[in-house]
């Protein structure tokens, strides 16, 4: 009886494993793409972020002229209002980057997109250098899985069309 129970469990386990293997072949367990988010949010490469920076600078300059006459609490309120406005706009950009990343990842057959950072530059006397190295989320990736340039290209194209 013990042998029959053990045999039945072995057959059931084998059947379950076979069913799982048929559902998801090993070769298609998932492909990963990468995105350099810092590059996507860089004002020199992203026109939308550049415009947000210009708008924020203009607002700060306009507020600074009248801020000298205000009490510290009112100056802080204005500063907070400007930061909140900028953060809302940056979140809108980030949300669009995530959306475009998903679309491009699906087009290329990726199931996951991980954030990458470029290799940090060694600067003399940088006390945070090791921290930068240790915090890099991806150590190596094939350049073929990097979707950063595609996301930036589409983001800038969509933003330029929206501005017109």
What does this protein structure show overall?
The protein is mainly α. It has one domain (27-163): Protein Binding, DinI Protein, Chain A. 64% of the residues lie in helices and 5% in strands. The chain contains six helices and two strands, in the order H-E-H-H-H-E-H-H. The chain has helices at residues 2-23, 37-40, 47-67, 72-107, 129-134, 148-163, and strands spanning 32-35, 112-115. It has a two-stranded parallel ribbon with strand order 1-2. Helix 3 (47-67) packs antiparallel against helix 4 (72-107) and helix 4 crosses helix 6 (148-163). The N and C termini lie far apart (79 Å). The model has no long low-confidence stretch (mean pLDDT 85).
How many helices? The count is 6
In terms of DSSP E residues, the strand content is: under 5%
Assign the structural class, choosing from mainly alpha, mainly beta, alpha/beta, alpha+beta, or little secondary structure.
mainly alpha
Indicate the CATH architecture. 2-Layer Sandwich
Shape: globular
Total strands: the figure is: 2
CATH superfamily: Skp domain
CATH class: Alpha Beta
Mean pLDDT: 85
The strand order across the widest sheet is: 1-2
| Structural Rg | 25 Å
Low-confidence stretches: none
Question: Mind describing the biggest β-sheet?
Answer: 2 strands, parallel
Domains (count): 1
State the helicity in percent bands: 55-70%
- First CA to last CA: what distance? 79 Å
CATH topology: Protein Binding, DinI Protein, Chain A
What is the H/E string?
Answer: HEHHHEHH
């Amino acid at each position: 009886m013990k042998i029959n129970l053990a045999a039945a469990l072995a057959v059931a386990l084998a059947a379950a494993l076979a069913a799982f293997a048929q559902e998801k072949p090993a070769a298609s367990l998932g492909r990963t793409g990468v995105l350099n988010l810092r590059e996507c949010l860089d004002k020199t490469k992203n026109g939308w972020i550049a415009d947000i920076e210009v708008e924020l600078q203009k607002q700060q300059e306009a507020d600074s002229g009248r801020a000298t006459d205000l009490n510290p609490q009112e100056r802080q309120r204005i500063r907070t209002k400007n930061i909140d406005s900028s953060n809302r706009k940056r979140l809108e950009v980030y949300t669009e980057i995530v959306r475009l990343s998903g679309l491009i990842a699906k087009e290329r057959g990726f199931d996951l997109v991980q954030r990458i950072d470029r290799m940090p530059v060694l600067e003399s006397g940088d006390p945070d250098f090791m921290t930068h190295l240790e915090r890099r989320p991806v150590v190596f990736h094939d350049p073929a899985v990097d979707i950063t340039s595609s996301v930036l290209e589409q983001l800038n194209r969509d933003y330029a069309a929206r501005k017109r």
